[in-house]
Structures are given as C-alpha cells and as structure tokens.
C-alpha cells in the first residue's frame, strides 16, 4: 500500500498560468510524496478520499505555502556570506571567493559548511536548491550527501574552470580533466540517487565563459547532449562578463553558450541582466531558464534585470539568492527584493531626469508575481513537478503560522489575498513552523528533523 497522508487547511499556490489561488479549507491527498487529489473539505468525495489515511491539519492562523525553489546558490560561499560586497566582481572573485573555494579541497571543511547551509535553507522554506559546489569532485559529493541527509532536493554541480586566467591554486588541471571529473561526478550522484532514493541530481556546471576554455565548454556541451542532465552557469551577469565574452567570441554570452551546446530545456543561467532582444528570443526558443538574483545584481549586475520583459517573451524565470553575491540565504528576501528592484527599474533612480525619461515602462513585478517566480517559476525552470500545491506535484510545503510564536500584525479578519501579501512581506523564519519535501517532514519548529 502506498504511503498516504491527507493535509488539510487553507493554502496559497499558483495555477497553470501563475495566478495565485487561495484554496480555502482544502484537502491535499498525498501518496508516496505526490499530490493525488485536491478537494474542498466540504466536498462529498472528501470523506472517501481521506479514508484511513494519516491526517495533518492546520490550526487557526496557519497556512500552507509551496516550498521555495532557489535556482542559484554558491554553496561554498556560505562561509563568506555578507563580506567584501563593496568590490567589483572580478576583484571579489580573485581576492576572496577563489581563495575560499580552494579550501574545499579539505573534505572535512566542506562537510561542515555544506551541512550548515542546507539546514539554514530548509529552515527558511527552501525545499529545492540548484547548487554550485567547487572544482573538487570528492568534496562536491559532500554537498550531495548533505542534501540527502537533511531531505532537501538538491541539484549539485562540480564547478568547471580550466581557463588560463584562473589562479593556479584553484582551477582544473586542463579541459580533459575537467570534463572527465564532471562525468565521474555525474555517475556518482546518479548512483547515490538510485541506491537511496534521495532527491539529488547532478548538474553540468561551467562557472562561466571567462573561466573556461573553449575545449572544456565543448566537452561539457557533449556531455549535456549525451546524458540529458541539467546545466547551469552564469550569463550576462555584468558589463565586465558581457564585454569579455563578446571580445573573445564575437558573440553575446548566451549565443556563445548555445554554440557550445549548453542551452536547452534543462539549462538554467543565472543573472542574465544584459540580454538584448535576440538573446531573449534564443532563451525562449531553446527553453533555457533565467535565475533572477535581484539582491546580488544590486552589487554586481550593473543594472536591474527586466524580468517582466523576459517573461512576456516566453522565457521561464525563477529566483535565486546567489549566496554569497547575495548576502541573504532566504528566498523570502529575494521575493521582496524582486519587487523593490522592479519598481526602481520602472520609475528610474536619477531624480535629475524628468519622470518620463527615468525608467523602463511596464517593468513592475507584483508581490504575487514574485511569489510565483519563487515557486511555480522555479519548478518550471527545472522541468520538475514542484513549486505548486496541485495534483501531480510533489508535496513540498511550508506551514506558516501568523498568530503563534511570532505573530504578524493582523488584528482583524482579513481577506485571504491580503493575508498572503502580509506573509510575503512580513514573515520571518520564526513563522515557518514546519517544512515537507516530497511528503517527508524535514523541519519542525525551525530545526531540521534528523533521521526522518
């Protein structure tokens, strides 16, 4: 018999068109981790649907939200979060980030950092994360093991950076070694998933074109075609990166990556601040997704990414925290910053300019749209059945409490839509009482449940 649980309460989720729905007092029937039915609690079929299943119900003031999907996390950089963000991107990488990541040759150090990060993300409602590890294949497996142990859905890549401009103390030996190590890493992750059932996936991960030789990028593109696994990288993150790629290849960042076979329906490229109309059309035609990282873009992007324009063109867009380029590991903050940045893009920031000349019209992202990016948009970007509380999707869920341990300022009965906006804008980790990943409870009272 399948493992079967019925979750009851009011939930907020997105429909197939990314419209936010308030499902007031509904039942969610979950079998073997996936939602098999969604019914109003007063539906005549509800009693039969529940049967003798285990029941989990909300208390007054509690709500179900989908688990968040973080599309861009530099896991080793958790050890430097919040530091050196005043530097230009190239200096930040060479002076701080590469020396830190080189330390992950020490497997014990990697194990401590990765376990800490996975626990922090789960406690903040991030049930799925797309991770960059480091160039080290063995210690990168420690991140996979940390995800498996804590119950997080982790998509992890061994970073490739074999180019001559990388520091000698932190790089792949050459292109052939980089591709071979990536193939080895992919096989080990797939074997672990098959043996344990853990929700872990390997990801082909060239850091970005400035760090990789053409030979390595071509080899990784061949792996992507042969193995059909996910691909991640950076793209058009800053003026520096964009100009470097164009001078080197004669093409835009996205066109160059496509030439190496690295765009496609399982590809997620981070930042994408500096895309022109041809780049956007290329993303849409190949099914490549954008990981919008609004907080780190404020430090390193040199501009605000016009994600509403990308979405209107048919590009899948989700959100990323970009630890440590973004100092906050919470997608709650990424949602709020998405809204804030979009308002600044639309209204402009130079008060010396007349209002009509300051900003980019129709760039505004609402709180509901940003919520969709963090949930349904992330699931769609990864081509996985996650990010919605709907039939056929994994039960990845956050239980949010607005009246208990850390009450929100709600003093009268409120409409569900207003409740959701208050949650999005005001909730803290203390309001997340529990988290489930694919039907398994992985966080209770802010702590990862060990041995679930």
TrEMBL record:
GO terms for biological process: guanine catabolic process. Binds 1 zinc ion per subunit. InterPro entries: Amidohydro-rel, Guanine_deaminase, Metal-dep_hydrolase_composite, Metal_Hydrolase, Metallo-dep_hydrolases. GO terms for molecular function: guanine deaminase activity; zinc ion binding. Its cofactor is Zn(2+). It catalyses: guanine + H2O + H(+) = xanthine + NH4(+). Transmembrane segments: none annotated. GO terms for cellular component: cytosol. Keywords: Hydrolase, Metal-binding, Zinc. Pathway: Purine metabolism; guanine degradation; xanthine from guanine: step 1/1. PANTHER family: GUANINE DEAMINASE. Belongs to the metallo-dependent hydrolases superfamily. ATZ/TRZ family. Catalyzes the hydrolytic deamination of guanine, producing xanthine and ammonia. This is Guanine deaminase.
